[in-house]
Amino acid sequence: MAPLAQTLALLAMAMATTAVTTVNVIPLDMAPDSFDDQYQGCGPAMKAALLTLSGSEFQQNKEFAEVWVKAAAKWQSRGPPVSPLSPDQATAIMAFTMTRTFNDAVRVVGRSRQLYQDNFHFKTLHFLLTDALATLRDAQKGQCRDAFLKVCNIRFETQRGDTVRFSQFMPVFPSKQIGECPSERLETVVKLHTCHGVEIQFFSEHREPAIVLIPPFETFDVTQYTQEGDKAQIRLQSTGTFSKYNCEWLGGNTTGDSWGEWGQP
């Protein structure tokens, strides 16, 4: 399976690929353990720190170093593109589509500042990916869009009226996915309206399928949750953003208290 397919399968809580019929229950809530920094007010300072930070992380995280080299070469091989992104931003998206351990870490290192500072050796990638999505969103004039996600043998634990976030950078699809879950397996279809997710397939390792990437700080209202037999449907409506952290690598106080900042739609 290609790395992007692994990302979609494993990081989006995955299409079931074995004969096991156990339904996995996944909380769909505000994801309090997620690292959700938006770097508001500290973009230039973060960029100034990247050379030193990335050098340190390449030493501490060999997988990240190898993926970054591979992603940079892949991006350069496509020739000079017309793109609003810098080479580093584009490489960050490419690298994201090549690794799944990054999102594994994003889901949990927000448990504490210390855990982020000491154990999250993807700080460079997190900043550049967040910055790239913001740049693409600006280039697309803040366009909102519908997107879809279908998973098998996954039951999201939520209810109508809840406010939720994905706990990671979530790949979803701009159109309904073709195909059904195998018989006797729960099929959950999520239809969502996102205002911070952007299309990234031009910057992906493989340009198919088309992918919309949603940042972990976008918030959604659950407007529908129904289940009939082995079919479940969820509808999510974007309501803005929420971040527990802001500019954490620089001390977390660039724009005031970094904990609990609600953003705009």
UniProtKB/TrEMBL annotation:
GO terms for cellular component: cytolytic granule; extracellular space. The keyword Nucleotidyltransferase applies. It comes from Junco hyemalis (Dark-eyed junco). SUPFAM superfamilies: ADP-ribosylation. Keywords: Disulfide bond, Glycosyltransferase, NAD, NADP, Nucleotidyltransferase, Signal, Transferase. Its EC number is 2.4.2.31. GO terms for biological process: response to antibiotic. Coiled coil: none annotated. The keyword Magnesium does not apply. This is NAD(P)(+)--arginine ADP-ribosyltransferase. GO terms for molecular function: NAD+ poly-ADP-ribosyltransferase activity; NAD+-protein-arginine ADP-ribosyltransferase activity; nucleotidyltransferase activity. PROSITE patterns: ART, TR_MART. The lineage of its organism: Eukaryota, Metazoa, Chordata, Craniata, Vertebrata. InterPro entries: ADP-ribosyltransferase_ARG, ART. It comes from the Eukaryota. It catalyses: L-arginyl-[protein] + NAD(+) = N(omega)-(ADP-D-ribosyl)-L-arginyl-[protein] + nicotinamide + H(+). Gene3D superfamilies: Toxin ADP-ribosyltransferase, Chain A, domain 1. Residues 1-19 form the signal peptide. Belongs to the Arg-specific ADP-ribosyltransferase family.
